[in-house]
Amino acid sequence: MSRIGKKVIPVPKGVEVKFDQGVIHVKGPKGVLKRELHEAVKADLEAGQIVVRQAIEGSQYRRFHGLSRTLVANMVEGVTNGYTKSLLLVGVGYRAAQQGKALNLSLGFSHPIVFEAPEGIELKVDKQTTIVVTGPSKELVGEVAAKIRGLKPPEPYHGKGVRYHDEVIQTKAGKAAGKSK
Q1: What residues are paired with 63 via a beta bridge?
Q2: How confident is residue 34, by pLDDT bands cut at 50, 70 and 90?
Q3: How many CB atoms lie within 10 A of CB 16?
Q4: Fold exhibited by the domain 83-164
Q5: Which end of the chain is more exposed for a tag (fewer CB within 10 A), N or C?
Q6: Rounded alpha-carbon distances, angstroms, from residue 137 to 14, 78, 120
Q7: In the chain, what's the furthest Cα-to-Cα distance?
């Protein structure tokens, strides 16, 4: 049995949890999330806590116990506090501007890039070079941040591009460093 799967998930005040034929619905101040649980796992609400149990015994189903518990815990955390990822634009002329729910990005290409935010995600621009992605779904916040970073990933020689706020880019030496006289 999974050590993580055994832990109960406390449900904070203001969060509603419903179970409907293998689908869990979590509603809180930051939004509403739903997820279909794997058939090998069942979840119940007991005394203000969510308990995740294995429904089918077997070694090949054991792995879904801890995973499902973590996914449900992330849902509860997301609708309570939300998740945030910050991105930095590094480079001369690299900047972002907000256009409603979309971003207008200048990343050194011949044209600006318009990035539309999916439903449930909020994009904010600070100081033209910092983008903050927020939302209740940890999975969706990470996916949107990765898509924005993928538009112009940091290059290894000068570190120019879009990077995560806490990301450290290892820069390469370049051609001149290899020469010796």
Answers
A1: none
A2: very high
A3: 12
A4: Outer Surface Protein A; domain 3 (3.90.930)
A5: C
A6: 17, 6, 8
A7: 75
